[in-house]
Amino acid sequence: MKVGLSSDNHFDVNRLDAAELLKQQAEYLATHHYDYYFNAGDLFNEMPKSLDYMDKLQNELGTSTQAYFVSGNHDMVRGVTFDELESPLSPQYLHNRLLEIPNSDFVVIGENGWYDYSFAENASTPADADFLKWKHGFWIDGVIEQPMTDSERLELALQQTQHWLDVAQQKHKQVLYLTHFVPRDTFTVYQLKRPSYWNMANALLGSNRTGQLLEQSQVRYAYFGHLHFRNQPLTLGATTYLHQPVGYRRTRFRPEWESADFMTEWKNTLQTVNL
Question: Least crowded by CB within 10 Å, which of 11, 85, 122, 254?
């Protein structure tokens, strides 16, 4: 089975014609014989638009390719509640689900993921209350409502992941894990100058506990997004991490695209795995 993986398309932030690009993505996936397409989130800054996009993409693909996604933090910003995020919003929404891949030894586990501030341990390690204050003052996640702390939300994500890993083990299946948030601080960047904006932001990117769980369970592949850096595949233990987000066309920090054309960026960062 030929699988394509992408993340952080940011159609609205990049001011793109999503309706036209949807057709181009569908044509590329179909003509290159992808059986599955998985997106690890940050399609739009509004969940209804992300759901609509994936629904229309599936309609455009027909039966040639099956398309699924998990939510990134940007998708959570508007138009969705926490309870809705934890519910089966659409057939294309893969959060807290296990998808069996026919005629293969694999299942795909989808989990939005979250964070617990642990990535900031190499910084000055403020108290949790300081991270929360900074989050609400400077970070887009500050507008995302939730009925629990960030650490509790990460714990929920780990419990959900463990459940589906147990199911996969019972089925004697290998796992491709799809998540938005970063599973290892190996992929983050720390600045020596302190206090640092980016070191505070690191706290809100993910958790090593996610990667530890995946590696302990010998997950074969883990694809994630969120960081707008691009990494070569990295294998830790039995787990190969894949991370090639599209990212922003323009940014005040550094250039993220290597061209001026979205489809070129999307094709060049599309990760292909044969299951």
Answer: 254
Q: How confident is the model at residue 98 (pLDDT cuts 50, 70, 90)?
A: very high
Burial 85-111 (b: 16+ CB within 10 A, else e): beeebeebbbbbbbbebeeeebbbbbb
CB-neighbour burial class of residue 52 (10 A; exposed 0-12, middle 13-18, buried 19+): middle
Total domain count, the chain: 1
Q: What confidence category does residue 125 fall into, taking pLDDT thresholds of 50, 70 and 90? A: low
**In the chain, which residue ranges form alpha helices assigned H by DSSP?**
18-31, 47-61, 82-85, 128-138, 150-170, 197-202, 208-216, 262-269
Domain CATH number, residue 182: 3.60.21
> What is the amino acid identity at position 272?
T
Rounded CA-CA distance 174/228 in Å is 28
- C-alpha distances (whole Å) from 112 to each of 34, 133, 151, 179, 264 are 23, 23, 14, 5, 26
Give the confidence band of 123 by pLDDT, cuts at 50, 70, 90: very low
Nearest CA-CA partner of 176 in 238, 232, 226, 229: 238
Tell me: the pLDDT tens digits for 17-54? 999 999 999 999 999 999 999 999 999 999 999 999 99
Positive or negative, the Cα torsion across 253, 258, 261, 266? negative
In the predicted structure, residue 225 carries a pLDDT above the cut 80: yes
Residue 33, SS3 per DSSP:
coil
Residue-averaged pLDDT of the chain: 93
Angle between the N-to-C axes of helices 150-170 and 208-216, in degrees from 0 to 180, rounded to the nearest 10? 10
Expressed as residue numbers, the domain containing 142 is 2-274
Alpha-carbon distance of 183 to 118, in angstroms, equals: 11
